[in-house]
Amino acid sequence: MATLGTTRGPGLALSALRTLINTALVLMGLLTTGLAQSQIPALVPRNFWALPENVTVVEGATAELRCGVSAPGSTVQWAKDGLLLGPDPRIPSFPRYHLEGDPARGEFHLRITACDLSDDAEYECQVSRSETGTELVSPRVILSVLVPPKVLQMTPEAGTSVTWVAGQEYVVSCVTGDAKPAPDITILQSGQTISDISANVNVGSQEKLFITEATARVTPQSSDNGQLLVCEGSSPALDTPIKVSITMNVLFPPGPPVIEWPGLNEGHVRAGQNLELPCMAQGGNPPATLQWLKNGQPMSTAWGTEHTQAVARSVLVMTVRPEDHGARLSCEAHNSVSTGTQERGVILQVTFPPSAITILGSIAQSENKNMTFSCISKSSRPRVLLRWWLGWRQLLPTEETVMDGLHGGHISMSNLTFLARREDNGLTLTCEAFSEAFTKETFKKSLTLNVKYPAQKLWIEGPPEGQRLRAGTRVRLVCLAIGGNPEPSLTWYKDSRTVTEPRQQQELRRVQLGSLEKSGNTFSRELVLVAGPSDNQAKFTCKAGQLSSSTQLVVQFPPTNVTILANTSALRPGDVVNLTCISVSSNPAVNLSWDKEGESLEGVAAWPRSAPYKGFAATRSILLRVSSRDHGHRATCRAYSAELRQTVSAFYRLNVLYRPEFLGEQVLVVTAVEQGEALLPVSISANPAPEAFNWTFRGYRLSPAGGPRHRILSGGALQLWNVTRADDGLYQLHCQNSEGTAEVFVHLDVHYAPTIRTLQDPTEVDIGSSVEIVCTVDANPILPGMFSWEKLGEEEEDQSLDDMEKMSKGSIGYLKIHHAKLAQAGAYQCIVDNGVAPPARGLVRLVVRFAPQVEHPTPLSKVAAAGDSTSSATLHCRARGVPNIVFTWTKNGAPLDLQDPRYMEHTYHQGVIHSSLLTIANVSAAQDYAVFTCTATNPLGSDHTNIQLVSISRPDPPSGLKVVSLTPHSVGLEWKPGFDGGLPQKFRIRYEAMGTPGYLYMDILPPQATTFTLTALQPSTRYRIWLLASNALGDSGLADKGTQLSITTPGLAQPSGEPDHQSPTQEPAGPSGLPPLPVWFAVGSLLLLSNAFCVGGFIWKWRLRHLAEGLSEKTEAGSEEDRVKNEYEESQLTGDRDTRSSMVSTSDVEPYYHSMRDFSPQLPPMQEEVPYPRGFTGLEDKDMAFPESLYDEVERLYVPSGAFGTLYDEVQMSPYDYHWPEHKYEDPRGIYDQVAGDLDTLEPDSLPFELRGHLV
Q1: Which part of the chain is the Immunoglobulin subtype domain (predicted)?
Q2: What is the pLDDT of residues 1043-1059, one digit of tens each?
């Protein structure tokens, strides 16, 4: 393409200064001049100064084919496999292709990014034909794109563990993924390359791609266990080969087992030895299984494996016994791939001593005769030698013999004969076995010789003969003998009968026969007995062989038995009975005597005669005439021994048959409590016992089988339960037996708790009059002081009944009140307690009727509301009185027409409190700014109060500003709010330090607070403090003296210890005048601000107009919160609870108003909805008390039904709270508006006129 040259003349520079009118002419001249001076370029040589070359890249890399051309004005483009890519450097058809370099310098390099297999082709650089030359084509070059293999698959599956058996051949294959060129595969076994590999190259999934598959035969060895078999795929496209592998788990047999014998002499052991033989087998996969065998029989199959060292261990633990001699112990090792069992064995050589030594022969022999013994040892290895010992003297054997024994051992035998002597008795004969193989052990057998010889002397030790022993005395007789072997057999005899161990427990306590005892050469046997009648004159003998010794006892004993005989058993009153008393035997003789229940009786005695146990017998008889009183009495016979000073007694119980007789202790009156139990006891005497007990009550017989509320006990007593007063009366009991009948009457007196029958509630009385409260009860018993009276109330002083008269007459109690006062009104309780729980309690209310008393602590009250005919106001009138009060309203003295829809009255009554709420809708300044009079009337009189409805205005100054705390750096203040003007008010403190120019101000938060602590004051400084109240219409001013005070802060006790506080009223230091330049800047700024305020004023006025419209809309909506903001609430009922009260008074008395914004009255519920509490503390008056619950009945008497409708059904009030709860009152009519709530942020002067209001 030719290049157009242009030559500009010197007139071109001058044409730039000419006017716009000659611009076209100048341009035409320039064009003409340029065309005239242009030249046609000459032919330029065309060639490649840089030819492309073959390039090899890895897939994903960037390739660049260079092409440098010296052919100005020609078009250069690349061709791919003959396809022209186009001259556009961006090559749109191939987004990854673009030309790089400076075309002006002839650089047309082809750059391909993110190469893939589609880029693998032949490329050539072509230069198009032009006016200066023919076309040029570079040699074709090849762009080779290498594709690395992405995956490498292995069979068995890569990453797994394969189990092979050592020595066996296995086939492993490895296949690569698509790649270019075909990858090479190498297989390594335990890090060593396998040379015998068969590899095949196959066509891949796409053209130009290849897959390589290699197969190898692997023969694993034991050393390959746990090693890797790796397949590596390598390619020029890979920096490092890719690898996959499997883990070879090669199974191979273990090595031979090895027994580690403890000690040097293998196989030599000793019987009783605890043998521990370790067996170890090295290697093997799986590890070896070990077992121990004894003579081919399994002994232990437990083994352990140390996997880190591939060692299997098994320890045989056994106790060697003699029979193990010659046994073969073997350890076998094998695993799952073992072709056979590998074994290692050892033969035991057991050394064992004789298990026992036996001595044959009799150990007993008479003195001076021969004794023969044989000593034989059990089998031992090696043999043992035997020797004899008698005491410490060695005896020579008569004969010795050795024989073969068990388990390869030997038996030794030795015979001994010697002459027995008396001194050898009790000596030990020992046979001892010894051997050099058992030097540390001794084996012996011993016998004790028993040489027989007779005893030498025998005698008895005990009480002297002829000594008198008292029955029960413990007697100890000891038989002693000297010498003798065998030990002499000492035997006791009583009167020729052998004394043996008693078998019965009673005899065991009386006779105890000791065993034969030995002390040195002396033998003894003891006989201990408790002397009894049978031992009297008895002879006790002790024998030992041919020797014997005797002694005789003399025993004194009381009568062994006293028996009474009667001539008859059945007695009746008036019969005579003959009783005979017999004493069977005693030593010495006894005297007999008779008595009956302590009364001595005379009897006839018989002569004494012989008796058992060589004692004496006695007899005495009496005659008795019996009566019914004698039944059960005992006639006692007493046998007395003067020498023994002991008496034995026996009695005969008289059985007298007689008809029933009631005893003197029979109870005739029984007292019971109602609903309790009663037991009517029976005290009766009869023989035989009564056959039946028949009870009758009021002519009706009570069932002997019992009933729902009674049962007759086995003794005849009557038991009653759930006793009622109807069970009171006489109960008749009729008893009978085979001898006759008897009757008795028992009175049941049932006591029951008192019940109040009559109690007039309420009891009404006019104030100043007298009344009597009568309480009539039903009770048993009637007690003189069972009536008491209480007055219910929370205040203690209200509960005194000192000024009332209390009296009772029988079942009637009286409480008399003279000259009734309001303080006496309330709930009274009649309490009756006759000792039977529970006491009866009756509630009666004393209602003291009085004329209405309207609560008007100030002559005139105010309520503020906007007079724009869009707002509403509520006037609240509250009064006290009984009976119920009727309210009437007047405006400026004229009766108020409540038919006017703008006026709505709600009246409610609760106890003595009566309220009327007058709601004025759409308040008009012209019509409604007036004085409203509320009049309360009941039959006893009337009272009234005045409420003035005024316009919204600035708040009145607060009052009662006082100091509650004072420190060197602070002062605590407290005050009472004034009338808020119908809008929310807030407070600000202004103060100054005397002698310091300027004032400081402090806004009080929260706005409703009535206390505040002013801080940052200086010690020992006099301050003057003012309190201001403000609302949206302005502040209260500082004229009121009650809103200012002066204080002086106290000094510091330690001035050096306190920091230096700067006075809060101190003015900041600075120059006294301003330089002229700042003055001008300030004046200019003020002018700008004034213009801005003018514009803002118009905008603000427009916003206020829309605000007023919004307020009217909200007034029509009538929300609960704003409706109650203008309500009036009388404050004595709430006291100082609401610190936000802000009403104003026309007098100088303390302000007495509530803010209508923060006041949210809640109307109390109807009388039938909420029960009244017992106490009332809402009203406080010096001369009056109004308990709340005592007028419940009065309301029911005087309030007309349906007087309140359902208006207050949803209102809730706490039983002990008589103040109106806040934020819960809701008028369903929604007639109240919202005024002050939307004006919190308005400046006083910006309030619209229609919202300001004026008093007419």
Answers
A1: 58-132, 270-338, 470-549, 572-740, 766-837, 868-941
A2: 889 999 998 874 433 33
251 in Cβ contact with 285 (< 8 Å): yes
How confident is the model at residue 308, as a pLDDT?
A: 78
The reported pTM is 0.36
As a whole number of angstroms, the distance between CA 382 and CA 408 comes to 9
Q: In what order do the strands lie in the sheet with 599-601?
A: 599-601, 591-596, 634-641, 646-653
What is the C-alpha to C-alpha distance for residues 196 and 71, in angstroms, rounded to an integer?
Answer: 60
Cβ distance 964 to 972 under 8 Å? yes
Secondary structure element (H or E) that encloses residue 580, with its range:
strand 576-586
Cα 305 → chain centroid: 51
Distance CA 72, CA 77 (A): 14
Please give the pLDDT value at position 43: 53
What is the dihedral sign for C-alpha 1076, 1082, 1084, 1086? negative
CB 878 within 8 A of CB 911: no
**Interatomic CA distance for residues 62 and 100, integer angstroms:** 13
Query: What's the CA gap between 232 and 187, in Å, rounded?
Result: 6
Sign of the torsion formed by the C-alpha atoms of 720, 722, 723 and 724 = negative
Closest CA to 11 of 41, 38, 31: 31
Beta bridge partners, 817, equal 771, 804
776 phi, psi to nearest 5 deg: -105, 135
Distance of CA 1040 to CAs 617, 957, 991, 1139, 1151, Å? 133, 7, 15, 20, 13
CA 872, 875, 877 angle in degrees (round to 5)?
165
User: Structure tokens of 1077?
Assistant: 């330049």
Q: Is the dihedral of CA 814, 819, 820, 823 positive or negative?
A: negative
Regions of the chain where pLDDT drops below 50: 1-42, 859, 1054-1080, 1100, 1104, 1106-1256
Sheet of strand 710-712, all strands in order from the earlier edge strand to the far edge? 677-680, 718-721, 710-712
Residue 254 buriedness (CB in 10 A; 0-12 / 13-18 / 19+): buried
What is the SS3 assignment for 1164-1202? CCCCCCCCCCCCCCCCCCCCCCCCHHHHHHHHHHHCCCC
Q: How far apart are CA 806 and CA 818, in angstroms?
A: 12
Q: Please tell me the distance from the alpha carbon of residue 999 to that of residue 989, in angstroms, as a whole number.
A: 10
Interstrand relation of 161-165 and 242-251 (parallel, antiparallel or unpaired): parallel
Kindly report the number of other CB atoms within 10 A of residue 1008's CB atom: 18
- Neighbouring CB atoms inside 10 A of 299's CB total 14
Give alpha helix (H) positions in 1020-1156.
Answer: 1076-1117, 1120-1123
CA distance 1162 to 835: 48
- CA 72/CA 42 separation, integer angstroms: 12
pLDDT reported for residue 349: 87
Buried b (16+ CB within 10 A) or exposed e, 660-686: bebeeeeeeebebbbeeebebbbebbb
CB 674 within 8 A of CB 723: yes
Answer for the pair 170, 163: CB distance below 8 angstroms, yes or no: no
Amino acid at 288: A
Tokens of 158: 């890569």
Q: Backbone phi, then psi, for 459, in 5-degree steps? A: -155, 165
Q: Would you state the structure tokens that stand for residue 955, as one six-digit string?
A: 């708040």
The rounded Cα 765 to chain-centroid distance in angstroms is 61
Query: Do residues 358 and 375 touch, judged by C-beta distance below 8 A?
Result: yes
Of 446, 539, 1153, 511, nearest in space to 856 by CA: 1153
pLDDT digits (tens, 9 = 90+) for 356-391: 999 999 988 888 889 999 999 999 888 888 999 998
**How far apart, in whole angstroms, are the C-alpha atoms of residue 184 and residue 234?**
5
